Amino acid sequence: MPRDNMASLIQRVARQARITFRSPAGPTFGENLHRLQQLLDEVRAEDLHLAPRGPSAAAAAAGGGLPWAGVVPPVSYMHICETESFSMGVFLLRNGACIPLHDHPGMNGMLKVLYGTLRIACMDTLPAAAAPPPAAAANGPCHRALFRSRQHYTPASPPCLLSPHTDNLHQIDAVDGPAAFLDILAPPYDPQHGRDCHYYRLLEGPPPPAGAEPPGLPREVWLMETPQAADFWCGGEPYPGPRVCL
């Protein structure tokens, strides 16, 4: 059963997010961000009236000539609220679904796993180098990056954070079953203000010799900018949890 105070909790999360991201360059940003992280860490799936499952048939595209019209998507999104300074919602992933490697230009963000297990790979962009990119880069624009981490997150894990300069690129995979996470982005994506979402592919080097350990992390890598993958799309479905008013 949902906790009696959940309506106030999700409302407090939204209010704290509004306070935190209204002045991301202000002197109290770090303190406000920490408070938001603490609140987000308290949220559980049942608090949002969610039970473990993947995207539902309600998230299937209704038509419009899309190649996946009528097909249940690998990922769906439940919108909760949005202001000029932040957006908040829930992503649902079916077992084995992947949100491909992508960026968040000039944005802060945090996600909290509600159920299931996510494998999240995080990277930083690096300044352009004099050294040429791999030969495969001829297929698209290439960027240097620092591959910082690849970790598993569960409901017992603290929120995963990203900032404009740290862990700003990530790939999210659902492993061992469906998964869902509460997501806050600040400010929201907005192509008209230079905050469009770009997708990337990791250009792996030659495999290590037999018996050798794979390269460790963190390490520098090359990324190639790519179109959105043909097998990835995100549907929308209603948010069933407590209403948030801002």
TrEMBL record:
One of its GO terms (cellular component) is mitochondrion. One of its GO terms (molecular function) is metal ion binding. CDD domains: cupin_ADO. It comes from the Eukaryota. It holds the Pfam family PCO_ADO. SUPFAM superfamilies: RmlC-like cupins. Keywords: Iron, Metal-binding, Oxidoreductase. PANTHER family: 2-AMINOETHANETHIOL DIOXYGENASE. This is AEDO dioxygenase.
